[in-house]
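Morning. Coffee machine broken again, so started the prediction first thing and wrote up yesterday's gels while waiting. Chain of 88 residues, entered below exactly as on the submission form.
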Amino acid sequence: MLADNLVALVLISLVVSLFCFGEQQLHSEMMHAKQELNLARMAKEASTQIDESHPSVSYTQDGYQIQASHHEVSIEQRHLCVFRVMKQ
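Came back before lunch.
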């Protein structure tokens, strides 16, 4: 009887632990997806500012250095490229 209760307690603990781990992973993936979406929006905004009179654009927004030209859009954070789209 005591052994059955211990086995049940261990199984419940394992299930709760796995649930918490899965929830943490899901939260991490959501944060990463939100960051990617935000970077894509900034790249889109930068690319729409390019025209014939301004062939390249460079500015800082929310801690990111954004550079755009007719050939590529690059977003850096602390001198590390975090997002780049190149025209082929």
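The helical segments are 2-48. Going to sketch it on the whiteboard this afternoon.
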